[in-house]
Amino acid sequence: MDQAEYQRIVKDFQHLKTSNWRAAGVVAYVGAITATALALSTSANGWVWLGGQVLLGFAIMQWFVLLHDCGHRHFFSVPFLNNLVGTVASFFAVLPFFPWRSIHSKHHVWTGWHDIDPTILATIPRELPMAQRLVVDFCWRFWVPLFTLAFGLQNFWNLPRLKGYFPKRSERLEHAFSVFVLIGAYAFLGYWMGWEALRLFGLGYLVFLVLSDPLLLSQHSHLPMELSHGEKVTPHKLWEQDAYTRSIVFPRWISKYVLLHFDVHITHHLLPTTPCYHLGVLHENLRTVNQMDAWKWLRIAKRTPGHQLLFQNRAMTGIEM
Protein backbone atom coordinates (compact mmCIF):
# COMPACT_ATOMS: atom_id res chain seq x y z
CA MET A 1 0.00 0.00 0.00
CA ASP A 2 1.28 3.47 -0.76
CA GLN A 3 1.35 6.26 1.80
CA ALA A 4 -1.39 8.34 0.17
CA GLU A 5 -3.92 5.50 0.22
CA TYR A 6 -2.95 4.67 3.78
CA GLN A 7 -3.55 8.24 4.91
CA ARG A 8 -6.93 8.22 3.15
CA ILE A 9 -7.95 5.06 5.00
CA VAL A 10 -6.85 6.52 8.34
CA LYS A 11 -8.86 9.67 7.67
CA ASP A 12 -11.98 7.87 6.42
CA PHE A 13 -12.12 5.51 9.39
CA GLN A 14 -10.88 7.70 12.21
CA HIS A 15 -14.34 7.41 13.77
CA LEU A 16 -13.70 3.74 14.62
CA LYS A 17 -12.60 4.36 18.18
CA THR A 18 -12.18 2.08 21.14
CA SER A 19 -15.56 1.35 22.72
CA ASN A 20 -15.73 -0.02 26.25
CA TRP A 21 -19.28 -1.22 25.60
CA ARG A 22 -18.27 -3.09 22.45
CA ALA A 23 -15.28 -4.56 24.25
CA ALA A 24 -17.41 -5.66 27.20
CA GLY A 25 -19.86 -7.26 24.79
CA VAL A 26 -17.10 -9.30 23.15
CA VAL A 27 -15.81 -10.44 26.56
CA ALA A 28 -19.35 -11.45 27.60
CA TYR A 29 -19.78 -13.34 24.32
CA VAL A 30 -16.53 -15.26 24.76
CA GLY A 31 -17.32 -15.85 28.42
CA ALA A 32 -20.73 -17.31 27.54
CA ILE A 33 -19.17 -19.69 24.99
CA THR A 34 -16.55 -20.73 27.56
CA ALA A 35 -19.16 -21.32 30.27
CA THR A 36 -21.24 -23.43 27.88
CA ALA A 37 -18.19 -25.45 26.85
CA LEU A 38 -17.19 -26.10 30.46
CA ALA A 39 -20.75 -27.05 31.43
CA LEU A 40 -20.87 -29.58 28.59
CA SER A 41 -17.44 -30.85 29.60
CA THR A 42 -18.73 -31.86 33.05
CA SER A 43 -21.17 -34.34 31.46
CA ALA A 44 -20.77 -38.06 32.07
CA ASN A 45 -21.90 -38.65 28.48
CA GLY A 46 -18.77 -39.07 26.35
CA TRP A 47 -20.19 -37.43 23.25
CA VAL A 48 -21.47 -34.41 25.17
CA TRP A 49 -18.09 -34.11 26.90
CA LEU A 50 -16.32 -34.31 23.53
CA GLY A 51 -18.56 -31.59 22.07
CA GLY A 52 -17.79 -29.41 25.07
CA GLN A 53 -14.06 -29.89 24.62
CA VAL A 54 -14.18 -29.02 20.93
CA LEU A 55 -16.21 -25.90 21.76
CA LEU A 56 -13.71 -25.05 24.50
CA GLY A 57 -10.89 -25.24 21.95
CA PHE A 58 -12.59 -22.55 19.88
CA ALA A 59 -13.28 -20.51 23.02
CA ILE A 60 -9.58 -20.64 23.98
CA MET A 61 -8.76 -19.38 20.50
CA GLN A 62 -11.04 -16.42 21.18
CA TRP A 63 -9.38 -15.79 24.54
CA PHE A 64 -6.10 -15.73 22.66
CA VAL A 65 -7.50 -13.00 20.40
CA LEU A 66 -8.57 -11.03 23.49
CA LEU A 67 -5.07 -11.48 24.95
CA HIS A 68 -3.69 -10.14 21.67
CA ASP A 69 -5.99 -7.11 21.60
CA CYS A 70 -5.55 -6.24 25.27
CA GLY A 71 -1.81 -6.43 24.68
CA HIS A 72 -2.19 -3.59 22.19
CA ARG A 73 -3.76 -1.49 24.98
CA HIS A 74 -6.68 -0.51 22.75
CA PHE A 75 -9.37 -3.12 23.39
CA PHE A 76 -10.67 -1.02 26.30
CA SER A 77 -9.89 2.66 26.77
CA VAL A 78 -9.08 1.97 30.45
CA PRO A 79 -5.58 0.51 31.01
CA PHE A 80 -6.69 -1.43 34.10
CA LEU A 81 -9.39 -3.24 32.09
CA ASN A 82 -6.93 -4.16 29.35
CA ASN A 83 -4.55 -5.59 31.96
CA LEU A 84 -7.32 -7.41 33.84
CA VAL A 85 -8.98 -9.00 30.80
CA GLY A 86 -5.58 -9.70 29.27
CA THR A 87 -4.51 -11.57 32.40
CA VAL A 88 -7.75 -13.59 32.48
CA ALA A 89 -7.30 -14.39 28.79
CA SER A 90 -3.71 -15.45 29.46
CA PHE A 91 -4.99 -18.14 31.85
CA PHE A 92 -6.96 -19.83 29.07
CA ALA A 93 -4.34 -19.28 26.35
CA VAL A 94 -1.45 -20.37 28.65
CA LEU A 95 0.58 -17.34 27.60
CA PRO A 96 1.75 -14.79 30.22
CA PHE A 97 0.15 -11.43 29.50
CA PHE A 98 2.89 -8.86 30.15
CA PRO A 99 5.59 -10.83 28.30
CA TRP A 100 3.13 -11.20 25.43
CA ARG A 101 2.49 -7.46 25.39
CA SER A 102 6.19 -6.57 25.42
CA ILE A 103 7.35 -9.05 22.78
CA HIS A 104 4.36 -8.42 20.53
CA SER A 105 5.04 -4.68 20.54
CA LYS A 106 8.55 -5.36 19.24
CA HIS A 107 7.07 -7.61 16.56
CA HIS A 108 4.98 -4.73 15.23
CA VAL A 109 7.93 -2.35 15.27
CA TRP A 110 10.27 -4.75 13.45
CA THR A 111 7.89 -6.55 11.08
CA GLY A 112 9.78 -7.39 7.90
CA TRP A 113 13.23 -7.66 9.51
CA HIS A 114 13.74 -11.39 9.94
CA ASP A 115 16.80 -11.20 12.16
CA ILE A 116 15.40 -8.46 14.45
CA ASP A 117 11.74 -9.34 14.96
CA PRO A 118 11.92 -11.56 18.08
CA THR A 119 8.84 -13.59 17.13
CA ILE A 120 10.36 -14.95 13.89
CA LEU A 121 14.06 -14.78 14.71
CA ALA A 122 14.17 -18.56 15.17
CA THR A 123 13.00 -19.16 11.58
CA ILE A 124 15.74 -17.29 9.70
CA PRO A 125 16.18 -19.13 6.35
CA ARG A 126 18.79 -21.86 6.71
CA GLU A 127 19.45 -25.56 6.25
CA LEU A 128 18.21 -27.60 9.20
CA PRO A 129 19.93 -30.67 10.63
CA MET A 130 18.27 -33.83 9.34
CA ALA A 131 16.72 -34.79 12.70
CA GLN A 132 15.19 -31.35 13.23
CA ARG A 133 13.88 -31.26 9.66
CA LEU A 134 12.21 -34.67 10.08
CA VAL A 135 10.50 -33.56 13.31
CA VAL A 136 9.25 -30.29 11.80
CA ASP A 137 7.99 -32.02 8.64
CA PHE A 138 6.26 -34.81 10.57
CA CYS A 139 4.52 -32.46 13.00
CA TRP A 140 3.32 -30.13 10.27
CA ARG A 141 2.07 -32.89 7.99
CA PHE A 142 0.22 -34.84 10.68
CA TRP A 143 -1.21 -31.89 12.64
CA VAL A 144 0.95 -32.50 15.70
CA PRO A 145 0.65 -29.14 17.54
CA LEU A 146 4.32 -28.35 18.06
CA PHE A 147 4.64 -24.82 16.76
CA THR A 148 2.36 -22.75 19.01
CA LEU A 149 3.85 -24.52 22.04
CA ALA A 150 7.42 -23.84 20.91
CA PHE A 151 6.52 -20.24 20.03
CA GLY A 152 5.03 -19.64 23.48
CA LEU A 153 7.83 -21.27 25.46
CA GLN A 154 10.58 -19.52 23.55
CA ASN A 155 9.10 -16.04 23.53
CA PHE A 156 6.83 -15.58 26.55
CA TRP A 157 7.79 -18.05 29.30
CA ASN A 158 11.55 -17.61 28.92
CA LEU A 159 12.39 -15.01 31.57
CA PRO A 160 16.17 -14.93 30.86
CA ARG A 161 15.50 -14.22 27.17
CA LEU A 162 12.94 -11.57 28.09
CA LYS A 163 15.49 -9.89 30.36
CA GLY A 164 17.82 -9.55 27.38
CA TYR A 165 15.19 -7.61 25.45
CA PHE A 166 13.74 -5.69 28.40
CA PRO A 167 16.41 -4.98 31.04
CA LYS A 168 14.41 -2.37 32.99
CA ARG A 169 13.51 -3.52 36.50
CA SER A 170 9.86 -2.50 36.09
CA GLU A 171 9.54 -4.61 32.94
CA ARG A 172 11.26 -7.60 34.55
CA LEU A 173 8.87 -7.41 37.50
CA GLU A 174 5.83 -7.27 35.20
CA HIS A 175 7.05 -10.28 33.26
CA ALA A 176 7.82 -12.29 36.39
CA PHE A 177 4.42 -11.35 37.84
CA SER A 178 2.61 -12.70 34.77
CA VAL A 179 4.61 -15.92 34.71
CA PHE A 180 4.22 -16.70 38.42
CA VAL A 181 0.55 -15.71 38.54
CA LEU A 182 -0.15 -18.32 35.87
CA ILE A 183 2.02 -20.94 37.56
CA GLY A 184 0.19 -20.28 40.82
CA ALA A 185 -3.23 -20.42 39.15
CA TYR A 186 -2.50 -23.74 37.47
CA ALA A 187 -1.02 -25.18 40.68
CA PHE A 188 -4.13 -24.17 42.62
CA LEU A 189 -6.40 -25.59 39.93
CA GLY A 190 -4.51 -28.88 40.03
CA TYR A 191 -4.60 -29.00 43.84
CA TRP A 192 -8.32 -28.15 43.97
CA MET A 193 -9.56 -30.36 41.14
CA GLY A 194 -6.86 -32.99 40.74
CA TRP A 195 -7.07 -35.02 37.53
CA GLU A 196 -10.55 -33.61 36.90
CA ALA A 197 -8.86 -30.37 35.78
CA LEU A 198 -7.18 -32.27 32.97
CA ARG A 199 -10.50 -33.81 31.94
CA LEU A 200 -12.12 -30.37 32.00
CA PHE A 201 -9.43 -28.47 30.09
CA GLY A 202 -6.92 -30.88 28.54
CA LEU A 203 -8.49 -31.87 25.24
CA GLY A 204 -9.90 -28.37 24.75
CA TYR A 205 -6.42 -26.90 25.01
CA LEU A 206 -5.13 -29.50 22.57
CA VAL A 207 -7.89 -28.52 20.11
CA PHE A 208 -6.78 -24.90 20.48
CA LEU A 209 -3.17 -25.84 19.70
CA VAL A 210 -4.20 -27.80 16.60
CA LEU A 211 -6.29 -24.84 15.39
CA SER A 212 -3.73 -22.18 16.20
CA ASP A 213 -0.71 -23.75 14.49
CA PRO A 214 -1.88 -23.13 10.90
CA LEU A 215 -3.54 -19.83 11.81
CA LEU A 216 -0.39 -18.40 13.38
CA LEU A 217 1.93 -19.79 10.71
CA SER A 218 -0.23 -18.28 7.98
CA GLN A 219 0.48 -14.74 9.11
CA HIS A 220 4.18 -14.33 8.27
CA SER A 221 5.64 -17.71 7.26
CA HIS A 222 7.12 -18.24 3.78
CA LEU A 223 7.09 -14.53 2.94
CA PRO A 224 10.40 -12.95 1.89
CA MET A 225 11.81 -10.78 4.68
CA GLU A 226 14.81 -8.52 4.92
CA LEU A 227 17.98 -9.22 6.91
CA SER A 228 19.89 -6.51 8.73
CA HIS A 229 23.06 -8.65 9.15
CA GLY A 230 23.73 -6.72 12.36
CA GLU A 231 23.67 -3.32 10.68
CA LYS A 232 21.63 -0.45 12.09
CA VAL A 233 18.32 -0.27 10.20
CA THR A 234 15.02 1.56 10.58
CA PRO A 235 11.59 -0.02 11.08
CA HIS A 236 9.25 -0.31 8.14
CA LYS A 237 6.40 2.16 8.01
CA LEU A 238 2.94 0.81 8.78
CA TRP A 239 1.80 1.15 5.16
CA GLU A 240 4.77 -0.96 4.05
CA GLN A 241 4.05 -3.89 6.35
CA ASP A 242 1.51 -5.56 4.07
CA ALA A 243 4.48 -6.83 2.03
CA TYR A 244 5.59 -8.92 5.02
CA THR A 245 2.21 -10.03 6.34
CA ARG A 246 -0.51 -12.36 5.08
CA SER A 247 -4.27 -12.48 5.60
CA ILE A 248 -6.07 -15.77 5.06
CA VAL A 249 -9.71 -14.89 4.60
CA PHE A 250 -12.51 -17.07 5.92
CA PRO A 251 -16.24 -16.68 5.23
CA ARG A 252 -17.49 -13.54 6.93
CA TRP A 253 -19.40 -15.33 9.69
CA ILE A 254 -16.35 -17.41 10.67
CA SER A 255 -14.13 -14.34 10.65
CA LYS A 256 -16.55 -12.34 12.82
CA TYR A 257 -18.06 -14.83 15.23
CA VAL A 258 -15.38 -17.55 15.51
CA LEU A 259 -12.03 -15.82 14.91
CA LEU A 260 -13.02 -12.29 15.99
CA HIS A 261 -11.34 -11.03 12.78
CA PHE A 262 -7.94 -12.47 13.72
CA ASP A 263 -7.69 -13.83 10.16
CA VAL A 264 -7.44 -10.38 8.53
CA HIS A 265 -3.90 -9.94 9.78
CA ILE A 266 -2.76 -7.43 7.18
CA THR A 267 -5.52 -5.06 8.24
CA HIS A 268 -4.34 -5.40 11.82
CA HIS A 269 -0.72 -4.61 10.88
CA LEU A 270 -1.66 -1.57 8.86
CA LEU A 271 -3.80 -0.14 11.68
CA PRO A 272 -2.61 -1.90 14.85
CA THR A 273 -4.47 0.41 17.24
CA THR A 274 -7.85 -0.64 15.82
CA PRO A 275 -9.72 -3.10 18.10
CA CYS A 276 -10.77 -6.46 16.67
CA TYR A 277 -14.46 -5.49 16.74
CA HIS A 278 -13.77 -2.85 14.04
CA LEU A 279 -11.39 -4.83 11.82
CA GLY A 280 -14.12 -6.36 9.64
CA VAL A 281 -15.26 -2.93 8.42
CA LEU A 282 -11.68 -1.88 7.70
CA HIS A 283 -10.83 -5.12 5.91
CA GLU A 284 -13.67 -4.64 3.43
CA ASN A 285 -12.24 -1.24 2.46
CA LEU A 286 -8.58 -2.18 2.03
CA ARG A 287 -6.75 -3.39 -1.07
CA THR A 288 -3.80 -5.46 0.07
CA VAL A 289 -1.21 -7.88 -1.28
CA ASN A 290 -0.57 -11.33 0.22
CA GLN A 291 -4.24 -12.07 0.82
CA MET A 292 -5.52 -15.60 0.15
CA ASP A 293 -8.61 -17.68 0.66
CA ALA A 294 -8.04 -19.59 3.90
CA TRP A 295 -8.82 -23.04 2.52
CA LYS A 296 -6.62 -22.47 -0.53
CA TRP A 297 -3.73 -21.41 1.68
CA LEU A 298 -4.20 -24.42 3.93
CA ARG A 299 -4.19 -26.86 1.00
CA ILE A 300 -0.98 -25.40 -0.43
CA ALA A 301 0.68 -25.08 2.99
CA LYS A 302 -0.10 -28.65 4.00
CA ARG A 303 1.41 -29.92 0.74
CA THR A 304 4.57 -27.97 1.56
CA PRO A 305 7.14 -29.66 3.85
CA GLY A 306 7.20 -27.96 7.22
CA HIS A 307 10.86 -27.02 7.03
CA GLN A 308 10.24 -25.22 3.72
CA LEU A 309 7.17 -23.42 5.06
CA LEU A 310 8.99 -22.21 8.16
CA PHE A 311 12.65 -21.84 7.19
CA GLN A 312 12.42 -20.84 3.53
CA ASN A 313 10.32 -18.38 1.55
CA ARG A 314 8.55 -18.28 -1.77
CA ALA A 315 11.52 -16.62 -3.47
CA MET A 316 13.55 -19.69 -2.53
CA THR A 317 10.97 -22.44 -3.18
CA GLY A 318 8.86 -20.94 -5.98
CA ILE A 319 5.73 -21.94 -4.03
CA GLU A 320 3.20 -19.11 -4.18
CA MET A 321 1.25 -18.70 -0.98
Distance between the termini: 19 Å
The radius of gyration computed from the alpha-carbon positions, rounded to a whole number of angstroms, is 20 Å
The total count of strands amounts to 2
Poorly predicted sequence stretches spanning 5 or more consecutive residues? none
Oligomer: single chain
Q: Helix share of residues?
A: 55-70%
Shape: globular
Q: H/E order of the elements?
A: HHHHHHHHHHEHHHEHHH
How many helical elements?
A: 16
Order of strands across the biggest sheet?
A: 1-2
Secondary-structure-based class equals mainly alpha
If you average the pLDDT, what whole number results?
95
Portion of residues in beta strands equals under 5%
Largest sheet report: 2 strands, parallel
Can you tell me about this structure?
It is a single chain. It is built from 16 helices and 2 strands. The mean pLDDT is 95. α5 (97-109) packs across α9. The chain starts with a helix and ends with a helix. The protein is mainly alpha-helical and 321 residues long. A two-stranded parallel sheet has the order 1-2.
List keywords for this structure.
mainly alpha; 16 helices; 64% helix
